[in-house]
Write a structure and sequence with these properties.
Layout lengths: L2 H15 L4 H13 L6 E8 L4 E9 L2 E10 L2 H13 L1 E4 L6 H6 L9 E11 L2 E10 L6 H9 L1 H22 L8 H6 L14 H10 L6 E4 L6 H10 L8 E5 L5 H9 L16 H4 L4 E5 L6 H13 L1 E2 L8 E2 L3 E6 L3 H6 L5 H7 L2 E4 L10 H15 L12 H6 L6 H15 L32 H15 L10 H5 L3 H11 L5 H4 L4
Parallel strand pairs: 7-12, 7-13, 8-9, 9-12
Antiparallel strand pairs: 1-2, 1-6, 2-3, 4-5, 5-6, 10-11
Helix pairs in contact: 1-2, 15-17
Length: about 525
């Protein structure tokens, strides 16, 4: 090693190993490397070859160093590019418009501003490898001389990254009251969830509430319109809690027939009823030491509400057909798009259950109240859909696309936005995407105004008719036998036929021939 290389190595060692404070160490590293390389931003990430994502763990820029916890999903093209990095150890992207990775990561770094990236792969263990990247605004910022400089300190950087990961794990464990002896590599390989899009803008207040309540055991009530992202927030609470390593069970209360609700939630013993050929644990038992998310809680019948309240009071249950009392340790998150206080006045929802659930309410604003999130949502959803559809290139948008999306009121919220983007990708592959006909969509032509949404209540007979028709359609018109509509509804075939006659439900001709 030459005298110059030796001095360079010693100075780097001093600058990145002289502090036990991770953020200060990152800041020192950034300032020193800025004197040697074109540099506006540096970051460390972990890539799992089995997954199509990067877990960004630390970054630094002119404002200092930071521990972060961001995930980004990428297309197959980016994965192939990442494997090239691993093979060559060093790789330069001098034109962000020509690299799949740069195109998909643009919103994370510099948006539409051209930039260059210089990456180094770090072998960690098994399917995991690290990525150390330095970035600079502008094209053609890096060259072979920069590769030579970084190659001189690659072992030092590798050791620093591994050391940083261990320090970071200790810091996060202390913050979350976790043991310092957690298995680092397993946690990195199976780290849960993605960052919540909009957490710094339209959902900033929501995420502040998430951070407040996540470490506690208090029940949470999520209130928001259909498609606003209630389950996403429920997962964020779970992953930010001390129960993150435990299971999270999501239950759509409106999708479970009343006759099956008790057995689904609380389980049953073998022989408890005709088709109970073996013991089954319910959703509450399966979520033990984790979280249970009860979506559409307002759809529970009054009888089901009584059974749920009994379990929530003592966190104990009995399976159907059993006599043993089973204690469960689960954190409850509920969600609704209905006006529960109004339902209480109408005696359609129990006030004692409401008080039990509504300890910490969080309102999730509809998309029309947080249109500033649409650009980030657009990039995130497009990247996800491109990967899902195995597209070779990430779709690009016309300059007016964001304005068109922000001019629409989004009665279907984020779920509707996902559908609109997917439809545009399907119809206009290879073209610049635009959304000129949003105002002409007929999907919500007869939709009530937001203030009237709680008044549209179906009669009980209408609900039963819809549910029976759905069961018949799922069973392809079969009433009896295994997988038939009667079995799915937990009814005798004769009872179901009688109910159909009473309600005037007739089988469609196309499926009538399947009825047994």
């Amino acid at each position: 090693m030459s005298t110059e290389q030796n001095r360079f190595f010693q100075e780097m060692t001093h600058h990145i190993m002289n502090s036990v404070d991770i953020e200060q160490s990152l800041s020192d590293l950034f300032q020193y490397m800025k004197s040697l390389f074109p540099l506006d931003h540096l970051s460390f990430g972990i890539v799992d070859k089995r997954q199509i994502s990067i877990h960004y763990m630390a970054e630094a820029d002119a404002n200092g160093g930071r521990i972060i916890d961001d995930y980004m999903e990428y297309s197959q093209a980016v994965v192939e590019e990442g494997l090239a990095i691993l093979k060559d150890r060093f790789i330069i992207f001098n034109d962000s418009d020509k690299s799949p990775y740069c195109l998909e990561a643009a919103d994370y770094f510099y948006g539409n501003t051209p930039f260059s990236i210089f990456c180094m792969a770090i072998d960690i263990c098994g399917p995991l490898f690290g990525i150390f990247g330095i970035m600079s605004k502008g094209k053609n910022r890096y060259n072979k001389d920069h590769i030579r400089k970084l190659r001189n300190i690659d072992k030092l950087i590798s050791n620093y990254v591994v050391n940083l990961l261990h320090q970071r794990e200790t810091t996060l464990s202390n913050e979350r009251l976790k043991s310092e002896n957690k298995d680092l590599w397993k946690r990195l390989g199976y780290a849960p969830g993605n960052r919540v899009v909009g957490s710094n803008l339209g959902l900033k207040e929501v995420m502040q509430n998430v951070r407040h309540v996540a470490p506690l055991l208090s029940p949470v009530m999520l209130i928001g319109e259909t498609g606003a992202g209630k389950e996403v927030i429920a997962k964020a609470i779970h992953h930010a809690s001390d129960r993150a390593r435990g299971p999270m069970i999501s239950v759509n209360c409106g999708a479970i027939p009343e006759t099956l609700l008790e057995s689904e939630l609380f389980g049953y013993e073998k022989g408890a009823f005709t088709n109970a050929i073996q013991q089954k644990k319910g959703y509450f038992e399966r979520s033990n030491n984790g979280t249970i998310f009860l979506d559409e809680i307002a759809e529970l019948s009054l009888q089901a509400q009584v059974k749920l309240l009994r379990v929530l009071q003592d966190m104990k249950l009995e399976r159907i057909g059993g006599s043993q009392t089973i204690a469960v340790n689960t954190r409850l998150i509920a969600a609704t798009n209905r006006d529960l206080p109004a339902m209480i006045k109408e005696r359609r929802f129990r006030d004692d259950l409401w008080f039990r659930l509504n300890v910490f309410p969080i309102r999730i604003p509809p998309l029309r109240e947080r249109k500033q999130d649409i650009p980030e949502l657009l990039r995130h959803i497009t990247s996800h859909k491109a990967r899902e559809m195995n597209l070779k290139a990430l779709p690009r948008f016309a300059p007016e696309a964001i304005g068109q999306l922000q001019a629409y009121d989004w009665p279907g919220n984020v779920r509707e936005l996902q559908n609109v983007i997917e439809r545009a990708i399907i119809l206009h592959q290879g073209e610049l995407l635009t959304f000129p006909t949003l105002d002409n969509l007929e999907v919500f032509k007869h939709r009530q105004k937001p203030g009237d949404a709680f008044d549209a209540i179906l009669t009980m007979d209408e609900v039963i008719v819809n549910h029976i028709r759905k069961a018949l359609a799922t069973a392809k018109g079969r009433i009896e036998g295994r997988g038939g509509a009667a079995e799915r509804l937990g009814m005798k075939p004769s009872t179901l036929r009688g109910r159909m006659r009473k309600l005037g439900i007739k089988l469609e001709r196309s499926v009538a021939k399947n009825v047994q």
